[in-house]
Amino acid sequence: MKKLLNTLFINQPDVYLSLDGDNIVLLKDQEQLGRLPLHNLESIVSFGYTGSSPALMGYCADRNISLVFFTMSGRFLARVIGESRGNVVLRKKQYRVSDDEVMSTKVARNFIIGKIYNNKWIIERMTRDYPLRVDVAQFKDVSKHLSSIILEVRVCEDLERLRGLEGQAAISYNKLMGQMILQQKEDFYFRSRSRRPPLDNVNAMLSFAYTLLANDMASALEGVGLDAYVGFLHRDRPGRASLALDVMEELRGVYADRFVLALINKKVINKEDFLKKENGAVIMTDEGRKKFLTAWQNKKQEKITHPFLGEKIPWGLVPHAQALLLARYLRNDLDEYPPFLWK
Questions:
Q1: DSSP labels, 277-329
Q2: Which residues of 236-267 are buried (b: 16+ CB within 10 A; e: fewer)?
Q3: Pick from 73, 77, 267, 316: most CB atoms within 10 A?
């Protein structure tokens, strides 16, 4: 159980939520695990299948406290709310900002600042931890270049210009990805990003990680009442969760890239976990995906101190924390959306 920004997160399995007076009570096998007053809560987020009592659901509906249910792996199931009040206002504000490119740019540039900043510190940490295994001078040059791009992004007011700056930063960062692979270099190499289809083992893993992260981010956005399909940087396209792709930009490197590199460098994944198809596409085997997903779920349980909130939370709650912060910004509770800045 974790309270964060007036939201209660329950990530223990098989916990039943019930009502006692003005308190939520957490039960497991009829044993009380915890109790918390409801009067300060805006939302209750539960990971698991056990469910909630009708009394608690009715109490929350009457008081505009949303009850959100996810699977243990983080897939969005349902959001239970009472009369439409806050969510309508929130989504209308989201749509207005999305329709205005100037307003969209002001939000989107913070996603990109987070992405570039985090990639810069991935590079800096490599020079600190492996100075004899990477080209330190080259890494420092790229780090300096990323710092200069961040300054340009901070004052950028044009969406196309912002995309161009993000592209420059991505090219510089990707040039170093191959050097960050320290083990199994014959079987795992990175020359450039290939997506549809991925043409090597590393790109196959990156594509899988980005898909998982996008799904987690979309679920988190739905959980706070935002429309995951209406973005600011990524524009509307049928079937694309544009806002999820927006917010996950700041987490791509620090969450997904570092995860993939760790699986390779720790030899959790090896060349036997991949298949090459006739068209050149590389896919993971069933066993490889099983290893990957197990490690992904374990990663989500690791604790990190959130840089803006200053609280220790599992990595798996980071998308939910960012979704909450974005919703607060759109409600004018924050002057600026605070990106996730890792160091």
A1: -TTS-EEE-HHHHHHHHHHHHHHHHSEEE-TTT--EEEGGGHHHHHHHHHHHH
A2: eeeeebbbbbbbbbbbbbbbbbbbbbebbeee
A3: 316
At 173, list the tokens: 């960062």
Determine contact, residues 17/46, Cβ cutoff 8 Å.
Answer: yes
Binding-site residue positions: 166, 234, 249
Question: Of the candidates 59, 68, 25, which has an alpha carbon nearest to the alpha carbon of residue 317?
Answer: 68
DSSP 8-state secondary structure symbol assigned to residue 235 = P
Angle (nearest 5°) at CA 120 between 158 and 326: 55
284: exposed, middle or buried (C-beta count within 10 Å: 0-12, 13-18, 19+)? Answer: buried
Residue type, 308: F
Query: Binding site for Mn(2+): residue ranges?
Result: 166, 234, 249
Amino acid letter for position 197: P
pLDDT digits (tens, 9 = 90+) for 188-228: 998 888 888 889 999 999 999 999 999 899 989 988 889 99
What is the crossing angle of helices 201-223 and 318-330, to 10°? Answer: 50
